[in-house]
């Protein structure tokens, strides 16, 4: 196990952001799923040692998160959700700066790490340009690069695909997939397709609680017998929207085909369907599971 979290609790004043988190995370790519406000960033900040917690125990590669904070920090790289880079730097200058902060003081060693990382995140051609001219995707890739300095065993990425356009998102996913071959990565997101192709294990959290942990297949199975395709005339759109948890809908002539979650078989023209990971996620979040 790379991370062991037991009985973790965290409050902001009287608001309980993490209620009682138990999670054991192995190697490879692990997805932390949950809607906005679920507690993902709070958990990731705690794992990165930048936020103290109230109760429970956390170890990272058998190191006590609090007592051995320095050791833990050497093992991990972190990309915060709100990652602000000083835009007057060039990408290369910024990576050199982060590397010195992380204790890579040998000039030669630093040069070689920075060059390698710029290649790895596909920014070598823009390395000497100022960050203020970078696109959102380029900034995110620079964010990954800074998290990789010092070759950490564990990489923590908090919503790394937020704000990326579709092609940047695909490029980003490929990079993550490549990195997951020789690093442990925890990635938080509320976009299921970010993890669909490459994560084996996920946890779903909401309101500071773990609602599900297991494989992506097991998550999809949570929606067996509760996900339906329901076809109604367009005039009944509002009624369906009021009655069911809707995953998606599409228009077909003057009818609407909804993909919905419901414990009972809905009235009307319905067919049961094979659930996807997203269906399982929606079922778990809405408390409507098989
Ligand atoms: P997520 O990353 O899943 O969107 P967060 O961990 O950022 O969730 O937030 C979880 C909850 O804690 C939210 O309700 C949020 O408003 C609250 N919260 C986060 N940070 C603070 C803070 N510094 N002070 C008070 N409440 C906070
Ligand atoms: Mg967040």
TrEMBL record:
Top-level lineage group: Bacteria
Gene3D superfamilies per UniProt: P-loop containing nucleotide triphosphate hydrolases (3.40.50.300)
Statement: the UniProt record of this protein carries the keyword Transport: yes
Keywords per UniProt: ATP-binding, Nucleotide-binding, Transport
One term of GO molecular function: ATP hydrolysis activity
InterPro entries: AAA+_ATPase, ABC_transporter-like_ATP-bd, ABC_transporter-like_CS, P-loop_NTPase
Pfam families (alphabetical): ABC_tran
KW Transport (keyword) present: yes
Span of domain ABC transporter: 3-232
Protein family according to the UniProt entry: Belongs to the ABC transporter superfamily.
Name the UniProt record assigns to this protein: ABC transporter ATP-binding protein
């Amino acid at each position: 196990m790379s991370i062991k979290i037991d009985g973790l609790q965290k409050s902001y004043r009287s608001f309980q952001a993490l209620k009682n988190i138990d999670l054991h995370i192995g190697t490879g790519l692990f997805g932390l799923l949950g809607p906005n406000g679920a507690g993902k960033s709070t958990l990731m900040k705690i794992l990165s040692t930048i936020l103290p917690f109230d109760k429970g125990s956390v170890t990272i590669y058998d190191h006590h998160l609090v007592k051995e904070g320095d050791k833990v920090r050497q093992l991990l790289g972190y990309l915060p959700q709100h990652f602000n880079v000083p835009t007057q730097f060039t990408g290369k200058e910024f990576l050199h700066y982060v590397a010195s902060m992380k204790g890579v003081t040998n000039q030669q060693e630093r040069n070689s790490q920075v060059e390698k990382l710029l290649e790895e995140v596909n920014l070598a051609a823009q390395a000497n340009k100022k960050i203020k001219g970078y696109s959102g995707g380029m900034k995110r890739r620079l964010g990954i690069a800074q998290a990789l300095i010092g070759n950490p065993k564990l990489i923590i990425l908090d919503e790394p695909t937020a704000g990326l356009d579709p092609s940047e998102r695909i490029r980003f996913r490929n990079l993550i997939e490549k990195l997951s071959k020789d690093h442990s990565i925890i990635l938080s997101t509320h976009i299921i397709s970010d993890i669909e192709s490459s994560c084996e294990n996920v946890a779903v959290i909401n309101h500071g609680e773990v609602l599900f942990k297991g494989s992506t297949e097991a998550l999809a199975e949570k929606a067996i017998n509760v996900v339906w395709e329901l076809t109604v005339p367009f005039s009944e759109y509002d009624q369906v929207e009021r009655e069911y948890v809707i995953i998606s809908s599409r228009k077909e002539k003057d009818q609407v085909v909804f993909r919905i979650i419901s414990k009972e078989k809905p009235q009307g023209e319905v067919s049961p369907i094979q659930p996807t990971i997203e269906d399982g996620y929606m079922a778990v979040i809405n408390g409507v599971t098989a």
